Amino acid sequence: MAPSSSSGLTFKLHPLVIVNISDHYTRVKTQLNPPASVCASGNASNNGEAMFQQNPRVYGCVIGVQRGRTVEIFNSFELLYDPSTQTLDRSFLEKKQELYKKVFPDFYILGWYSTGNDAEESDMHIHKALMDINESPVYVLLNPAINHAQKDLPVTIYESEMHVIDGIPQLIFAHTSYTIETVEAERISVDHVAHLKPSDGGSAATQLAAHLTGIHSAIKMLSSRIKVLSQYLAAMQKGDIPCENSLLRQVSSLLRRLPAMESERFQDDFLMEYNDKLLITYLAMITNSTMNEMVDKFNIAYDRNTRRGGRTAFM
Amino acid sequence: MEGSSTIARRTWELENNIPPDSSSDCIFYYDDTAQSKFQQEKPWANDPHYFKRVKISALALLKMVVHARSGGTIEIMGLMQGKTDGDAIIVMDAFALPVEGTETRVNAQADAYEYMVEYSQTNKLAGRLENVVGWYHSHPGYGCWLSGIDVSTQRLNQQYQEPFLAVVIDPTRTVSAGKVEIGAFRTYSEGYKPPDEPASEYQTIPLNKIEDFGVHCKQYYSLDVTYFKSSLDSHLLDLLWSKYWVNTLSSSPLLGNGDYVAGQILDLAEKLEQAESHLAHSRFGGSVPSSLHRKKEDESQLTKITRDSSKITVEQVHGLMSQVIKDVLFNSVSQSSKSPSDSSDLEPMVTP
């Protein structure tokens, strides 16, 4: 197992990268194992690669930006890898890099990705090969095995570190933690695809239900995490577990951050926004109640021009 | 803990006939011979209404929405790759094109042809064997429909690059409403009179674009859009939730869209003024039948306005609800001087 990294860089991963890698893997796997009903004649070359059919390894590059100590991985694309010579197709990489630079001029190559269970020795060759593009590339590993008992994302990010082992300085992989970062639009589409919400407007009631259900699940997660923490702390208090000071410090700093916002200005802004929304609701209510058939029926009934001398007095 | 929500979701999926995951992976398989056979047959040449459905993969949707949103208020465009399957067009992937969006540019694709050819070639090497099957662009803030320029571009495409599909995404409305605003269209050829089709879902169009919309809206039809994902995708997305809930809770749809909301309300006010002037004119109308007829038009105009206003309000109220919930959760802790009951007042739901 690779040791934890100590470089101090924070990594942020966008969900698009995860879906990209998964799609690449599914494509390659399906193309190698054609579904039985579709084709029997083509793809006769499969027989020699029996052991690759189960879990083909795919390779690709990840791109993004690095600002100071934060590395943000936005997107990824595929690479050609030749397993016999264990080299990456360099010209392909450069061509793809050029194409992506035209559309996303801010992003540059941050590292590479692959699928599999664990980092292997051969991966170090690829890693070293990429070092001339980026001095310290990252290695994103996705484990495509579907294991329903898993509770956590099977994605690990490795960095390379120089360690002295047996007197020889060597590069080894060290895994780092990362957070999932997203923009609002990405979150909505991921949500949409993950939960396959009804795509049409529906009535206001279903929209409200969908919105509140989302928030409700998020709050449930929050409360379960807090429960875990509080149980841990209670056990520590009882003496079941040795006291861990760093954890206690973190928890206390977390608690000291509540309430999250307490300034006068925040309250003012918040109330102003609240009042704005109330005003909008009021306006909508007025519009709703007056701009309807009653107005037109009133006009028809009390039309002052077509009924001279009629009910003009009323208007 | 998570058990009840998974059970609820599985029941929902069952009720809505979502096909089981294992068989949906075969959609990723690209059968070269079957596709070229389909190309030769050209069943769409005889029936302008041939393609009825679109299936978009999770990856393509994500890429298109992120690209559209990254453009801000500028329109962006890109191409989609995929294949056909009977009367459905399947979109497997999408990629962006390096062109600056301006509505007046008819031949934006001429600039990007080189890019497209190179990209397709490299993709084929990397194992993505599908062909270009459509184009997408964004209408930030003004809804999913085809403008006049779009209609003529798509007509050209449908003449020379069949099968081809046009997709429009509105990233601003997506963020504001909390659901993906996307539409897929195919045009009819010149002079073809389509049979009356059922009214599609209503969407509000800003006043400055409504003329463009009205003139061309009968020249194309929209297709049903559904989404699919692979089994690995579903598995990963499930697990993603364990890290993602933080973002869901912390998202503030109100903050990014102030401009757009103000624009919508202004537009609504202008529409009201227009409706009012119509009503004023109709009072001086001649015979009763014609004035009645005009009143009917204004009636529907007024109903549209009320629907728009309800929609805007509903979105705002949703955003406010999130803010209030967060305030209650994280702010009303110990200080009894600030009474928490003030901020936990949720006002009643606006029913359209």
From TrEMBL, chain A:
Keywords: Cytoplasm, Nucleus, Phytochrome signaling pathway, Signalosome. PROSITE patterns: MPN (PS50249). GO terms for biological process: COP9 signalosome assembly; protein deneddylation; red, far-red light phototransduction; ubiquitin-dependent protein catabolic process. GO terms for molecular function: metallopeptidase activity. GO terms for cellular component: COP9 signalosome; cytoplasm. It comes from the Eukaryota. Component of the COP9 signalosome complex (CSN), a complex involved in various cellular and developmental processes such as photomorphogenesis and auxin and jasmonate responses. The CSN complex is an essential regulator of the ubiquitin (Ubl) conjugation pathway by mediating the deneddylation of the cullin subunits of SCF-type E3 ligase complexes, leading to decrease the Ubl ligase activity of SCF. It is involved in repression of photomorphogenesis in darkness by regulating the activity of COP1-containing Ubl ligase complexes. Belongs to the peptidase M67A family. CSN6 subfamily. This is COP9 signalosome complex subunit 6. It comes from Eutrema salsugineum (Saltwater cress).
From TrEMBL, chain B:
Keywords: Hydrolase, Metal-binding, Metalloprotease, Phytochrome signaling pathway, Protease, Signalosome, Zinc. Gene3D superfamilies: Cytidine Deaminase, domain 2. Signal peptide: none annotated. Residues 333-343 have a biased composition (Low complexity). This is MPN domain-containing protein. GO terms for molecular function: metal ion binding; metallopeptidase activity. Residues 295-304 have a biased composition (Basic and acidic residues). Residues 283-304, 333-352 are annotated as: Disordered. One of its GO terms (cellular component) is COP9 signalosome. Pfam families: CSN5_C, JAB. PANTHER family: EUKARYOTIC TRANSLATION INITIATION FACTOR 3 -RELATED.
